[in-house]
Write a structure and sequence with these properties.
Layout: H1 15-34, H2 38-41, H3 46-55, H4 57-75
């Protein structure tokens, strides 16, 4: 059926883009407070975090949720 809106808000957005934007906005310390995972709290880096998030679906879901909440707040 045409006219349906099945737009995925994360379509075309990579995990690296999401993580880089969140770290730029919030910093590693706040990221670690919001999502308690070691890769955000102990010697954090984009590369180590990407490696962990790609292997850990529940953590990736939390990062994506944080990103989407920020986008929704930007719209209001």
């Amino acid at each position: 059926m045409t006219g349906q809106n099945n737009h995925d808000p994360l379509q075309g957005v990579t995990l690296k883009m999401i993580l880089s934007e969140l770290v730029g906005q919030h910093g590693w310390e706040e990221m670690g407070r919001n999502i308690e995972i070691r890769c955000f709290t102990h010697d954090p880096s984009i590369q180590s975090s990407l490696k962990f998030l790609r292997r850990t679906p529940w953590a990736r879901d939390k990062v994506e949720e944080m990103y989407l909440r920020g986008k929704l707040n930007d719209l209001s």
